[in-house]
UniProtKB/TrEMBL annotation:
Any one of the GO CC terms: plasma membrane
Biased composition (Basic and acidic residues): 195-208
Database matches in PROSITE patterns: EXS, SPX
Domain named SPX: residues: 1-303
Transmembrane segments: 354-377, 397-418, 442-463, 478-498, 510-529, 564-581, 628-647, 673-693
Region described as Disordered: 172-208
Key words of the record: Cell membrane, Membrane, Phosphate transport, Transmembrane, Transmembrane helix, Transport
Organism: Medicago truncatula
Protein name: Putative SPX domain-containing protein
Listed PANTHER family: PHOSPHATE TRANSPORTER PHO1 HOMOLOG 10 (PTHR10783:SF104), XENOTROPIC AND POLYTROPIC RETROVIRUS RECEPTOR 1-RELATED (PTHR10783)
Gene Ontology BP annotations: phosphate ion transport
Keyword Nucleus tagged: no
Length: 758
């Protein structure tokens, strides 16, 4: 792999613009190389002309050495000046000048090189200052945790005080041993390098009795539950945030603080990689400059780079060591192997068996689909009475698995394009690094799921068509039930098989959707709820399972569910459940953020719920009045959804954008993709009206038309997914949000009850 590709691959996507622009510098170097070649050709032509003139004139000049062509390596051809901007010298800029007149391309290269060094240096220093401040807060959190352990476990507070004091001395000893490190930060015993007064104050804070620390501490319940949310609504939040000093509370605090440490450690690792990759990039580009310009400037410029803040600061390395030692001591019982395993991200290994089984299942799927089609055609199933029975009873049961398979296929395509365009979807979804599924794994699950579903359908067909015995027909009726039970068992299987971490992550997210008003809404929560809105027909298919098997319809080989009042009620309710999830989430976001946009977004889902109820009423009553109301309500809901999809979720159709009717920042280079996506979104949204208009297509059964429209909605959702996450990623890039914000478990207040500013 070339350095250019490796450099691109190792970038933190949200910081991409803050890395050295290696590609731009390479382009300028190509201009330097071409201009040098042109100049060398001119010099060679002149030299040849002068040599001919000397030969004819009889004059021969002796040359001792070719000094003009081979510049001495020790000759200083560039001069780098350091300009201090701030009075205290905290900010510095670098400016490079050539000691002799050269081409315009070389001057442009050096100017761009200085700009990149200044940019990288300033950004790195800003991020280091931020992690130093965060380490100060984290140090205080650890001290409070130690004090809480003393209180809960009835330990000797004197021993804990000695422990804290010992750790403080350890930090002081490190500073004495390494005088060059005067700005390092200890996350356990943090000292501020700005003034000696602050260092002494913090040291005195550490030497306090651990019990005194708890006097001005409240607990923040970030790992909330529906019960804790209800308590906060109906009781005083200050009372709920008081420490109760029990083991359950201690476990919650330890879990939350462990997450804070892991995220902080990842941030430090990213900063370390940022420094290393940029230093490597400067070294590589200077070697290329030396080669193309034939001048020995690399050593001089790299000396400046190495002496800059980017090259000299080792605060991040020291912080990494201290965070690791503190985490191992406090959260893994001094087990170094276990502590490092929890802190460091799990690297995914490429497995050839995934590719093999994906290909195997794909081949099986094609064969099974072909066999099913041939079976239906050869038996002329659709021309017989049993064909109507299949379309009315069996096909809706199996369509559930078709919807799920199609949605998984769209998600596999999404993950492929997200990775291709460097959209950090694991971070956006809050997935633990190393446990996310890539497109190969999702496609493996998709093909495996589809193979089982089509195989069951073929078995059902075989038992139904070729076995006159009634017992075989009864067994055929139970095949769909067995299939859905198998899928549910695999989904909730507690054993570490079939991507358990991803299954449990999905279950937790689904639970948060169900309990939407009681949880703070994350991107994963509303993203999953939006997926469910495109699966409303799956919810109705699931209700059909309950009616068909729960009420014994399968044993009578008839489907009279629509004549049952309880089924009709469920049919109404389940159609609006996914939209209720999103409406409840919008209400919660409005409560938390006080942003009117969430109220408008909620009204969009409310209009969809109204349209769904009216349309479902029209399906059951078939009255012209209800049809008119269904058309009006559906049209309003569709217009609101189209506007929100394109303008809000995708941030397109910006009037003053440099890209006409798009937005300023685009990840996909081909602008036509965005225009096509907008048109497709509108067309596929409008296709929903077919469920109200009931336009009959003679070759297709009514159930097949409903299934087709539901599949089109799932495809539309897959298109929406890519551009929605692209927009969210660009927002993170603009704000340099590359890490998950995990709230600290403790907050501090003074004697008057006012929160202290950290």
């Amino acid at each position: 792999m070339t350095f250019k590709k490796d450099f691109k691959q190792q970038m933190v996507p949200e910081w991409e613009k803050e890395y050295m622009d290696y590609e731009c510098l390479k382009k300028i170097l190509k201009e330097v190389k071409s201009s040098k070649k042109a100049k060398d050709r001119d010099n060679k032509h002149l030299q040849h002309k002068f040599s001919l003139e000397r030969a004819f004139s009889g004059i021969h000049l002796q040359h001792g050495s070719n000094h003009q062509n081979d510049e001495g390596i020790g000759e200083q051809v560039i001069e780098v000046k350091t300009l201090e901007i701030d009075v205290d010298g905290s900010k510095e800029l670098f400016e490079t000048k050539l000691n002799e007149e050269r081409g315009e391309a070389e001057a442009r290269f050096l100017q761009k090189l200085d700009e990149e060094l200044n940019k990288v240096n300033a950004f790195y220093k800003e991020q280091v200052e931020a992690v130093k401040h965060e380490a100060t807060l984290l140090s205080k959190q650890v001290e409070t945790l130690v004090a809480l352990r003393v209180k809960v476990k009835n330990l000797d507070p004197g021993l804990q005080q000695i422990r804290l004091s010992g750790e403080d001395n350890m930090y002081q000893n490190h500073r004495q041993k390494d005088p060059t490190v005067d700005s390092e930060v200890d996350p356990v015993q943090q000292t501020n390098r700005s003034t000696h007064h602050e260092e002494e104050a913090h040291s005195n804070y550490n030497r306090r009795d651990p019990m005194e620390i708890l006097e001005h501490v409240k607990i923040d319940d970030a790992l909330q539950s529906p019960i804790s949310t209800v308590k906060n609504v109906f009781t005083d939040s200050n009372d709920n945030n008081q420490l109760s000093f029990n083991k359950e509370e201690l476990k919650k605090v330890e879990k939350q603080l462990r997450l804070v440490f892991v995220e902080f450690y990842q941030k430090l690792l990213h900063l370390k990689d940022y420094s290393f990759m940029n230093l490597s990039a400067f070294s590589k580009i200077m070697k290329k400059y030396e080669k193309n310009a034939s001048r020995g400037a690399s050593r001089e410029y790299m000396r400046v780079v190495d002496n800059s803040y980017l090259g000299t600061s080792d605060e991040v390395n020291f912080l990494l060591e201290k965070v690791e030692s503190t985490f191992i001591r406090n959260f893994s019982h001094s087990n170094h192997k276990k502590g490092r395993k929890l802190l460091r991200p799990k690297m995914k290994r490429e497995r050839n068996r995934i590719t093999f089984f994906t290909g195997f299942f794909s081949g099986c799927l094609v064969s099974l689909i072909a066999a099913t089609i041939l079976r239906i055609v050869s038996q002329q199933l659709m021309e017989k009475k049993v064909g109507t029975f299949y379309m009315e009873n069996i096909f809706p049961l199996y369509s559930l698995f078709g919807y799920i398979t199609l949605h998984m296929l769209m998600y596999a395509a999404n993950t492929y394009f997200w990775r291709r365009y460097r959209i950090n979807y694991p971070f956006l979804f809050g997935i633990r690094p190393g446990t996310e599924l890539d497109h190969r794994e999702v496609f493996l699950l998709t093909t495996g799921h589809a193979v089982v579903a089509v195989l069951c359908f073929l078995i059902n067909l075989q038992l139904e068509m070729n076995q006159p015995n009634r017992s075989y027909k009864t067994a055929a009726e139970l095949v769909p039930l067995s299939l859905i039970v198998l899928v549910i068992l695999i989904t909730f299987c507690p054993f570490n098989i079939i991507y358990r971490s991803s299954r449990f992550f999905f279950i937790r997210s689904l639970f948060r959707c169900i309990c939407a008003p009681f949880f703070t809404v994350t991107l994963m929560d509303f993203f999953l709820a939006d997926q469910l809105t495109s699966q409303f027909q799956s919810f109705r298919s699931f209700v059909l399972y309950i009616c068909y098997y729960g009420l014994g319809e399968h044993s009578r080989r008839e489907n009279k569910c629509r004549s049952r009042g309880i089924y009709n009620v469920q049919y109404f309710v389940v159609g609006v459940i996914p939209y209720w999830f999103r409406l409840a989430q919008c209400m919660r976001q409005l409560y938390d953020e006080r942003d009117i946009d969430h109220a408008i977004n909620g009204s969009k889902y409310l209009s969809t719920i109204i349209a769904m109820v009216i349309r479902t009423t029209f399906e059951t009553k078939k009255a012209m009045t209800w049809k008119v109301w269904a058309l009006i309500s559906s049209a309003v809901a569709i217009l609101l959804n189209i506007y929100w999809d394109i303008v809000k979720d995708w941030s397109l159709l910006q009037r003053h954008s440099k890209n006409p009717y798009l937005r300023d920042k685009l990840i996909v280079s081909h602008k036509s993709v965005y225009y096509i996506a907008m048109v497709l979104n509108i067309v596929l949204r409008i296709s929903w009206m077919q469920l109200v208009l009931e336009l009959h297509w003679k070759p297709l059964h009514r159930v097949a038309i409903i299934t087709l429209i539901s599949c089109l909605e799932i495809i539309r959702r897959g298109i929406w997914n890519f551009f929605r996450l692209e927009n969210e990623h660009l927002n993170n890039v603009g704000n340099y949000r590359a890490f998950k914000s995990v709230p600290h478990p403790f907050s501090y207040h003074d004697d008057d009850g006012n929160d202290k500013d950290e």
